[in-house]
Amino acid sequence: MKTQTHFSAEIKHWLALAAICLGIFMALLDVTVVNVALPTVQKDFNESFDNLQWIINAYTMMYAVFLLVFAKLGDLFGRKRFFQLGMVIFTLGSLASALSQSGLQLNLARGVQGVGGAAMMSLSMAIVAATFTGQERGIALGIWSSVIGLATAIGPLVGGILVQLFSWRAIFLINIPIGIIALVLGRWFINDSYGNRHGHIDLIGLILSTLAIFAIILGLLQKENHPSWAWSNLHIVGLLVGGFILLVSFVLIERHLSDPMIDMHMFASPSFVGSAVASFGLGAGLYAFYTYLTVLMQNYIGYSAMQTGIRQLTISVFSLFLGPIVGMLTNRFSNRWLAFSGLVSISLGLWLIYRSINPTVTYVDFALGFVFLGLGNATVNPPLSSAAIGGVKPEHVGMASGIANVFRQFGISFGVVTLGIQLTNAYQQSLTASLPSIKLPQTALSGIQHGLLSAGPFSGPAVLASSRASQLRRLPAFKAVHGAVINAFDLGMKHVLLLSMVFTIGGAIAAALLIRDHDDFNQ
């Protein structure tokens, strides 16, 4: 019979996991939850679309930049300390966001949130790995992974409900009581752990890695915010090339330091590299795709934010229930083939959605695709997490967690940009080819074409529904124009889905070829 002390220790571990999961759920939820609130924020603050984009991008930027910083600080000075600090920063950032009286204030507050979210996310997997051992670690990582999948997919639903029932400020205010509960649980039940606590801060490495990530992410965001700019535009290529040079400099310097920020020997582990590459493919192929799936369902099919979120539960519900089960399976089956099968399932789901795209598509048509996306998302995260920490020495688990999250975030940012380019190019080419054949006066046709191309694929239906198009809607040719817009977006979505499949299949191949069936550091 277990002693009371041993039983209490077990309960303490699971309560610590609850605190960790509450933190990362908030951090990842706030990546997507804001999307559905942008129209009401724009109305309240009378902001331009470019400024609105920074409500999302300020969070994304700071989140990506500080992942490695907090991973290193946590390894040196205590993961619990900096996880809790991240929780405080995030909660205060949420309060500041809710109380913002201008777009600038909200952007700054969102940046503060991103810093806190980075601290929690970068250290959470390492704390879980240090708290649990044996089969319990697999289950705990499965639960941790299921929260990641659930938070990423459920954002539009949560945002839609809160905005519809209360206001956009509610999406930030709800974080405050959750943050306080998580802080209390973490204070009492999370045990502190370290990586190499006798090491030193590699200031040069810290600065170079931070600047490199900042430049690359900002370059990608510049391209996302200005899709008409060429990659050769100085504002884009300058940042990307500068970031790459900084990254190369970082690697070269780190290899010659006795106490580097990142031990480059970690990248000699095939399992760690395979997990990182597969995480990039997952972020670029699935999580970035959610942005365009939401646009399809709301702007073109016509579902409300809440209706969209409810239907997307078909994806996220599998993560909630299957994550812990898959976590247990990582104790019995190969991480390699679990990760591979998860990414293949996602690829199959994307293909089924691709096959179903047509002008009259509804949720029923791609529900089966959603099922495969959900099964794959639930299956892939636990083995990728296990492979990442199993492929490095125990003292490197914290940094391995940070690097894995950076790869996932890079994947999301890169995916959003490249998928958006595919969508925009196909949309514009289709409209340019189809609109001239519609029987309309040349001046009217030119105006409509200019308006649609300028507004972009997200806003096609909104342009046709605007007051400026009121006269067009009375003409027999309006149906043809409307059909051309729908067909153009459908073609763009097919291009998006094809590229998403390339990313996920690439991740599956990396998992199959690189992830090992044993812990690399035990070789």
UniProtKB/TrEMBL annotation:
List membrane-spanning regions. 12-34, 54-70, 82-100, 112-132, 139-162, 168-189, 201-221, 233-253, 265-290, 310-330, 337-354, 360-380, 496-515
Location(s) in or outside the cell: Cell membrane
Q: Which UniProt keywords apply?
A: Cell membrane, Membrane, Transmembrane, Transmembrane helix, Transport
Specify whether Transmembrane is a keyword of the entry.
yes
* Signal sequence extent: none
Do you know which InterPro entries this protein is assigned to? EmrB-like (IPR004638), MFS (IPR011701), MFS_dom (IPR020846), MFS_trans_sf (IPR036259)
Its domain of life reads Bacteria
The way this protein sits in the membrane is described as: Multi-pass membrane protein
Domain annotation Major facilitator superfamily (MFS) profile: ranges: 16-519
Q: Which family does it belong to?
A: Belongs to the major facilitator superfamily. EmrB family.
Cross-referenced PANTHER family, in alphabetical order?
A: MAJOR FACILITATOR SUPERFAMILY MULTIDRUG TRANSPORTER MFSC
Protein name per its UniProtKB record: MFS transporter
